[in-house]
Amino acid sequence: MQNHEIDYRIIGEEMQYVEIELDPNETAVAEPGSFMMMEDGIQMETIFGDGSQQQGGLLNKLFSAGKRMLVGENLFMTAYTNVGTGKKCVSFASPYPGKIIPLDLLRLGGRVTCQKDAFLCAAKGVSVGIEFQKKLGTGLFGGEGFIMEKLEGDGMAFVHAGGHVLQKELRPGELLKVDTGCIVGFTHTINYDIQFVGGIKNTLFGGEGVFFATLRGPGTIWLQTLPISRLASRVLAYGRPFGRKEEGSILGGLGNMFDGDGM
C-alpha cells in the first residue's frame, strides 16, 4: 500500500465523529474545521493541497489545490502526524446531523466519486481531486453540476452525509432512479446519468424536480435521506416572515421546481 494504514472507530448516532488511531509517524489529513480533539504527541501542520504522495513539484501541488477549489473544498488541508512513541488518537466531527461513511479505497477499486463537500478526512496519500461529468445533460441538470469529488488511492477515506445512509450494491445492468441530491457517492464502475421525469403534470406539479439521476450497475452506491440543500431550504422557508403557506399546493410545486428544492 502507498497510503498510510490507519485504524478507526465511528462514535455517535445523529452527530457522529470518527476517531483515528495513528501509529508512530502515521498521518491523517482532514478538512479545516473538522478537527475535534487529539492526544498529546500528535503534531498538526497546515499543508498546501491534499498531501497525497503522488504530488511532485510545485506545479503539481498548485494544480491539485486548484482542483480542490473547483469542488468547493479549501485550498489548504491539515495534516495530523503522530510524532510520539506509542499509538495516539485524533478525532474529526461531522459538520451536520447525519452519518460518517468509511471508504476502504483498496477494496472499492481505488476510486470513489462523491458529491461536492462530502470529504471529511483520510489517510495520508489519498488524493482528493475532481471528476468531470462528460455528458452535457448530466452536467447541466444532474444536480451536482459538471464537477464532483474524486477520492483515489488504496487507503481509508471518510465522507459525511445527511440523515440516514443507505449502501446498496447494484448488479450488472441494474438501474436505480434517484433524486440527485440524495446521492452521496458511487464506485467508478457505476454509470451515472440523468433522465427527464416526463409528463407535463409531473414536471409542473410534482414538486420533485425535473430530472432523476440514474445509476446503473455493477457497483456500490451510497444514498442519503437528508441532503443538506434540502434541509437548508426548509429552514429558509420557515424562517421567512409568513413561511411558505402554499406547501403541497400547485404554487408550492412550481416553487420547488424552480428553486431547485427537488434537485
Commentary on this structure:
This protein is α+β, with helices and mostly antiparallel strands and 263 residues long. It is built from five helices and 19 strands. It has helices at residues 58-70, 136-141, 200-205, 228-239, 250-259; strands at 7-11, 17-22, 27-30, 35-38, 42-48, 76-82, 88-93, 98-104, 111-114, 119-123, 127-132, 147-152, 156-162, 165-170, 175-178, 183-187, 191-196, 211-216, 219-224. Strands 5-6-3-10-13-8 form a six-stranded antiparallel beta sheet. A six-stranded antiparallel beta sheet has the order 11-12-9-16-19-14. It has a four-stranded antiparallel beta sheet with strand order 1-2-7-4, with no helix packed on it. A hairpin with a 5-residue loop joins strand 1 (7-11) and strand 2 (17-22). The longest helix has 13 residues, at 58-70. The chain starts with 6 loop residues before the first strand and ends with a helix.
Features:
single chain, 263 residues, alpha+beta, Double-stranded beta-helix, six-stranded antiparallel beta sheet, 5 helices, globular, disordered C terminus
Count of alpha/pi helices: 5
CATH superfamily: Mitochondrial biogenesis AIM24
Report the β-strand fraction as a percent range.
35-45%
Report helical residue fraction. Answer: 10-25%
Main sheet attributes: strand count, strand direction, barrel closure: 6 strands, antiparallel
* Extended strand count: 19
Low-pLDDT residue intervals, each spanning 5 or more residues: 136-146, 202-207, 244-252, 257-263
- Succession of helices and strands: EEEEEHEEEEEEHEEEEEEHEEHH
Distance between the termini: 38 Å
Shape: globular
Domain module count: 1
CATH domain fold name: Double-stranded beta-helix
Helix and strand composition category: alpha+beta
The CATH class turns out to be Alpha Beta
CATH architecture: 4-Layer Sandwich
Radius of gyration: 20 Å
